[in-house]
Amino acid sequence: MIYAILVLAILLVATLEYNRLARSRERTKEAWSGIEVQIQRRASLVPELVTTVKGYADHERALFEEVARARGALMAASQVDETAAANGDLTRGLNRVLAVAERYPELRAVESFLQLQAELADAEEKIAYARQFFNRNVLDYDTRLRRFPTVLIGRLFGFTPLPFFEIEAVGASQIAWPDRQVSAEPDQERSEDA
Amino acid sequence: MSSPTEPLLPYDRVAENRRWTWIILGVFALLLLPAAAYINELVTGYFAFASLYAGVLTDGGELDPQATILRGRIIGLVVAVGVVALVAWLKFRRAGPAVLKLIGARPADSAERGRFGRIVDNLCIGAGLPAPSLCVIDSFAANACSAGLSPDRAYLAVTGGLLELLERREVEAVLAQELAQIANLDTRLKTIVAALVTTLWLPIRVIAAVFRPLFRLHPLAGCLVVGAIGFPIVMAYGFAITLGLSFIAEEPGFALVFIGLLLLPVYVFVVVPVGGSVIRAALSRELELAADAEAVLLTRNPAALARALVKMSAAGPDPARLRPAAYHLFTLDPNPGRRWLTPTHPTIEQRIGALQRMDATISEQMLLEANAAGSRFRNDQS
After folding, report:
1. I need a labelling partner for B340 at 20 to 30 A (CA). Which of A40, A175, B50, B99 fits?
2. Span B10-45, pLDDT tens digits
3. Which of A162-171, B42-51, B113-122, B325-334 has the highest mean predicted lDDT (pLDDT)?
4. Which bin fits B128, alpha (ψ -120 to 50), beta or left (φ > 0)?
5. What is the distance of C-alpha A45 from the center of its chain?
6. A178 CB near a chain B CB, below 8 Å?
């Protein structure tokens, strides 16, 4: 009798923990799809930007190809780290394109370009927030997965820890703001050119 | 409660707020108990009378009085609980819009939406929330407020002054503070408390509404009329209670009911409203500090929130809009003048101190500048 109650209690705890873990994993999946939506949104702005800037700076063809490649890689990426790396490449490429555009005052007067620039900044901020939501859910899921007795359930049913969506591959600061990056990168670009 | 410097996930707070919601609803039910008891007595009496009457009509009065009264009591109990539940349901069902009406908010037009709608959208992505309905309060005080019973149907209101005074990052910080509260169900709890406090203050407001025109006419006239009506009532009260006490030995049951009925107005006009205000004050101070911390978790920008709070505080309250029942819903205490009575917010120093512990770059210089900007804004308004 005692054993029966004990077994039942263990089963009950196991079921509850399994459900919590599964719910937590679903949350991270949902958060991930949020990132994908925002990345798609930004990627869809890229061709328009490239076309607009190309009209003024056709000689930067290598840069435009690089951006197109980064965009392609980002669209093809499916894993978290892949996507993060490709997203970083595209961000760097876009910043260089915007830095090129800086050199053409007539381009900066074009209404559609300004709008595009604002859209891109907004898209970047949306990605940053989506990334944060994802990382917070991953943190919750991973912490759950490391705790006892949940760790046993996780092993048994093949739950694996998920990686964070890092904004830089190595040594990224915790507080990485897209607008800071935007403001930092063009300066580098200019110094390289000079 | 964990200290603001520790990382803090909203999930624990959600559970805590759920618990608090039930406690608050329980207290509300307790405060309504006398009303329920009264309805119960009424229904019992009516039922007993009706049975007697029906009995007389049908078989000449062959009736067991005990059973009739018992039946009456059971029906009375069901009716009383039903009435209280119905009142609570009617009261809380539309609590969100009711609170908006209380604070004088209106839906944001498209120009205003353009000024802060996108910030809200982006923050909602970060918080994993559906976008709330955006509202604007026409007031030059810089403040923000959220209402609603669930994150799916939440309302986020900002004052016109907030949009004018603050920079983009600061608006973001304040909106994040409100969204954090929508997400962790602080908003639901506070909305329920607001609905509750307005209900509990209703008798006082009705009386005040009757006498206010007299005071507006002339304070002396008001005092005279209140005195002329009030003095005999107070005297009669004293007399009636002594009377009740005098026959407590002979007829204890009747005397207790008599004195209890006499004390009912005291209960309705003093105990209940004060109880409501105390619940509200006890509740929301802690919530505000936790919400500051969660907002920072979302924006990673403690300095912007600190600057925003100092600016908003320096810009001062809007004396034209004082609706006490909803004070605790705002980011900043809309009426810091009366905080000695039932404070609803931690002091601005406490909040800035907590933010400074998170971010050492928040300097006195920065806060002084923010303070000056807020004061300038106030002087421009007046």
Report:
1. B99
2. 556 677 778 888 888 788 778 777 777 777 777 777
3. B113-122
4. left
5. 16
6. no
pLDDT (mean) for A45-68: 85
Give A35 to chain B, closest Cα distance, Å: 9
A133 touching B, CB under 8 A? yes
Judged against a pLDDT cut of 90, whether residue A96 lies above it is answered with: no
Decide if B128 and A122 are in contact by the 8 Å CB cutoff. Answer: no
B11 → closest Cβ in A30, A129, A140: A140
First to last CA, chain B: 41
In this prediction, residues A102-124 reach a mean pLDDT of 85
Chain B contact present for A125, CB below 8 A: yes
pLDDT tens digits for range B122-176: 999 988 889 999 999 988 888 999 999 888 989 999 999 999 999 999 999 999 9
How far away is chain B from the Cα of A42, in angstroms, using its nearest Cα? 14
Per-residue pLDDT for B1 more than 50?
A: no
Given CB atoms, is A136 within the 8 Å cutoff of chain B? yes
List Cα–Cα distances, A18 to A6, A24, A152, A153, B90, in angstroms: 18, 10, 10, 6, 39
Cβ partners under 8 Å of residue B267, min gap 6: B34
pLDDT of residue A193: 38
* Surface of B (12-51) touching A: CB under 8 A: none
Q: How many contacts (CB atoms, under 8 Å) link A and B?
A: 35
Chain B nearest CA to A129, separation (Å):
4
Contacts with B, A 12-31, CB within 8 Å: 30-31
Chain A CB contacts of B11 below 8 Å = 140
Q: What is the mean pLDDT of chain B?
A: 82
Q: What is the 3-state secondary structure (H, E, C) of chain B?
A: CCCCCCCCCHHHHHHHHHHHHHHHHHHHHHHCHHHHHHHHHHHHHHHHHHHHHHHHHHHCCCCCHHHHHHHHHHHHHHHHHHHHHHHHHHHHHCHHHHHHHHHCEEECCHHHHHHHHHHHHHHHHHHCCCCCEEEEECCCCCCEEEECCCHHHCEEEEEHHHHHHCCHHHHHHHHHHHHHHHHCCHHHHHHHHHHHHHHHHHHHHHHHHHHHHHHHHCHHHHHHHHHHHHHHHHHHHHHHHHHHHHCCCCCHHHHHHHHHHHHHHHHHHHHHHHHHHHHHHHHHHHHHHHHHHHHHHHHCCHHHHHHHHHHHHHHCCCCCCCCHHHHHHECCCCCHHHCCCCCCCCCHHHHHHHHHHHCCCCCHHHHHHHHHHHHHHHHHHC
pLDDT at A8: 94
DSSP code, position A5:
H
Taking the whole predicted model, whether its pTM rises above 0.90 is answered as no
How many angstroms away from the CA of A29 is the closest CA of chain B?
Answer: 12
